[in-house]
Amino acid sequence: MTTFDANGVTLERIREFVWELPQEGEMRSPARVLASEALLEQISDDKTLEQLRNATHLPGITNYAICMPDGHQGYGFPVGGVGAMDAENGCISPGAVGYDINCGVRMMTTNLTYSDVQGHEEELVDALFDNVPSGLGGGGIVESDVDTVEDVLARGVDWALEHGYAVEEDLLHCEDEGMREGADPSKVTQKAKDRGKNQLGSLGSGNHFLEVQRVTDVFDGEVGEAFGLEKDQIVVLIHCGSRGLGHQTCNDYLRKIEQQHRGLLNQLPDKELAAAPAGSQLAEDYYGAMNAAINFAWVNRQLIMHRTRQVFERVFDRSWEEMEMNLLYDVAHNIAKKETHEVGGEQRELYVHRKGATRAFPAGHPDVPSAYRDVGQPVIIPGSMGAGSYVLRGGEASMDLTFGSTAHGAGRLMSRTQAKQDYWGGDVQQELQDRQQIYVKAQSGATIAEEAPGVYKDVDEVVRVSDALGIGDKVARTFPVCNIKG
């Protein structure tokens, strides 16, 4: 197949797994989809390709708009999308970051093996569910006030370290060491802070989860050793973001853009791509607010990890230090960052938007934590609760192909509404336990139905494409043992 046609969009095959939508009309750049033919068929089922084409109209977009192999329709900008906009003459777009600012994942390793956990699954899933707040609305691990939220927004995980919720090693194994420079709490509205103050240390709802997993495969022994991974080991994966604070921040700035930059908005094919021109006061304000929300999300995941350590201590009757419950890595996948990349033979500062995409810097890159600089940045790609997840490392080709990015998960195949029509939560829960020995607990059966394994793309295929392209190299695969959801 040399071309692919869907919904009025024609893609040309550049090489294996690389498909290009040529620049035409008012597009400011070409667009590219990184996918196998099987994944491309699924990506084309919704408005992903149309949204990708629309994204090329954003001012200052560089090289091309990119859709990862897990891509699907989002708010304006596709989930699984990467767009790098010139930081001087381009723009920054809240819609190209997403409502859940710094939704991301962190993985914690342990010295427990699967046999240590067998027989404790129900006790463990019940204890985690009872002790880690989840679901819509308020309730967090820390009862905080607005002053606490201000401190968290400014300092990130350094705040958690000072208050006994983290150790120094946690910061060293987190993207940006858990604190974004340029965070400005004063640019986060009072309404957003009020929403966040009762949610610090909570999973939320939707596709967010805490999952205990076992390592089933290690594909690269040397890198696996550097990451602290070995076969049959128990690890813990946490997936959540900035809760109501991030959602409100996105919403606040979308409304401000509509009011202050209507001229630019009217030039875009989709109002959901609303963007503030680089250099404008509103662009600076949003960047400061977004960085603050990023810090909030990192603290949120840190607190959940802290509580998880406590739960494991009670269930297994030993200290978390004895169980070596150490942070492997925490990485964001809804974010825009000022980064310097080579474009046309020169170094340029860009706003790199990753919406449902993971930073994947290769070995030697100065922004990779020193613990992993010799092997490459850890990349964590969750699958569904009935499939494996993956740990990758940043690939050598990522800087040229994707501005140092790869996929962020399996990617949805089905809307939540359709999922609830096709699946019954209780049946999914029972089948996972009976057939795969996976123990799941959630606030409602509807949540389980919305997140049924059949709702997602094949994570094995997503990772196969990433590995083949050299943007994220396979290191290890994990499989669920127990899972809690909102």
From TrEMBL:
Active-site residues per Swiss-Prot or TrEMBL entry: 408
Highest taxon above the source species: Archaea
Group of enzyme by EC: ligase
Annotated stretches, region: Disordered: 179-202
Reaction(s) catalysed (UniProt annotation): a 3'-end 2',3'-cyclophospho-ribonucleotide-RNA + a 5'-end dephospho-ribonucleoside-RNA + GTP + H2O = a ribonucleotidyl-ribonucleotide-RNA + GMP + diphosphate + H(+); a 3'-end 3'-phospho-ribonucleotide-RNA + a 5'-end dephospho-ribonucleoside-RNA + GTP = a ribonucleotidyl-ribonucleotide-RNA + GMP + diphosphate
Keyword annotations of the record: GTP-binding, Ligase, Manganese, Metal-binding, Nucleotide-binding
The EC number(s) this enzyme carries: 6.5.1.-
Cofactor: Mn(2+)
InterPro entries recorded: RtcB, RtcB-like_sf
Molecular function via GO: GTP binding; metal ion binding; RNA ligase (ATP) activity; RNA ligase (GTP) activity
Positions with a binding annotation for Mn(2+) 1: 100, 208
Binding-site residues for Mn(2+) 2, renumbered to this chain: 239, 333
Protein family: Belongs to the RtcB family.
Role summary: Essential for tRNA splicing and maturation. Acts by directly joining spliced tRNA halves to mature-sized tRNAs. Joins RNA with 2',3'-cyclic-phosphate or 3'-phosphate ends to RNA with 5'-hydroxy ends.
Subunit structure: Monomer.
Protein name, per record: tRNA-splicing ligase RtcB
Gene expressing this chain: rtcB
